[in-house]
Every structure is written in structure tokens, then in C-alpha cells.
From TrEMBL:
One of its GO terms (biological process) is phosphate-containing compound metabolic process. The lineage of its organism: Bacteria, Pseudomonadati, Pseudomonadota, Gammaproteobacteria, Pseudomonadales. Its EC number is 3.6.1.1. SUPFAM superfamilies: Inorganic pyrophosphatase. GO terms for cellular component: cytoplasm. It is an enzyme of class 3 (hydrolase). Keywords: Hydrolase, Magnesium, Metal-binding. It comes from the Bacteria. Signal peptide: none annotated. This is inorganic diphosphatase. InterPro entries: Pyrophosphatase, Pyrophosphatase_sf. Its cofactor is Mg(2+). GO terms for molecular function: inorganic diphosphate phosphatase activity; magnesium ion binding.
Length: 100
């Protein structure tokens, strides 16, 4: 990544809107790809960067890409969680348009 200092995040998830045409078209920031190794990624609220949160002890796989809708807030204080079905896994940290 040219032009960046080591340790800087390439994008700010807090600046991504919840969607282009709500509620028909939403943006989802992917944290865990479909059928991925049992590694839990999470966007850190302080740095706005994607971190490895933990290695899961059970060999659990998400059947779809797991992520969240930016700039939303669920009852638990975190952004709304989303599963996005795609023909291929989407890389952690990617943002994808989806339809509810």
C-alpha cells in the first residue's frame, strides 16, 4: 500500500452511509467471509480498523458473509448484524451493497 504509514487503516467505516436507497439498498461491511476459517474479525470502535478479535475454539463456519450495516445502532449498542449470501466469500473489510 504505497503512500500509507504502517499501521494506518485504508478506509474509515464510520464514514460509510447505511445505504444508497434505504431500506431497499444497504451497505454491509463484511467482517467474516462465508465458509471461512474459525477466526472472528471485528471493527475496533476506537481506531475504526479491522482486527482479529479471536480464534474460535469450535470449528464453526458462517454459512454466509457476516457483517454489519454502517452507521446503524442495534439494542446491544453495536451496528445491526447482517448475513449476506453471495456466490463466493467476500474478503474481510470489504463493503458490499445488498438488498434486505
Amino acid at each position: 500500500m504505497s503512500g500509507q504509514l504502517w499501521g494506518q487503516c485504508p478506509m474509515s467505516y464510520s464514514k460509510i452511509p447505511a445505504g444508497k436507497d434505504l431500506p431497499n439498498d444497504i451497505y454491509v461491511a463484511i467482517e467474516i467471509p462465508a465458509n471461512h476459517a474459525p477466526i472472528k474479525y471485528e471493527i475496533d470502535k476506537e481506531t475504526d480498523c479491522l482486527f482479529v478479535d479471536r480464534f474460535m475454539a469450535t470449528p464453526m463456519f458462517y454459512p454466509a458473509n457476516y457483517g454489519f450495516i454502517p452507521n446503524t445502532l442495534a439494542d446491544d449498542g453495536d451496528p445491526l448484524d447482517v448475513l449476506v449470501v453471495t456466490p463466493y466469500p467476500v474478503s474481510p473489510g470489504s463493503v458490499i451493497r445488498a438488498r434486505p
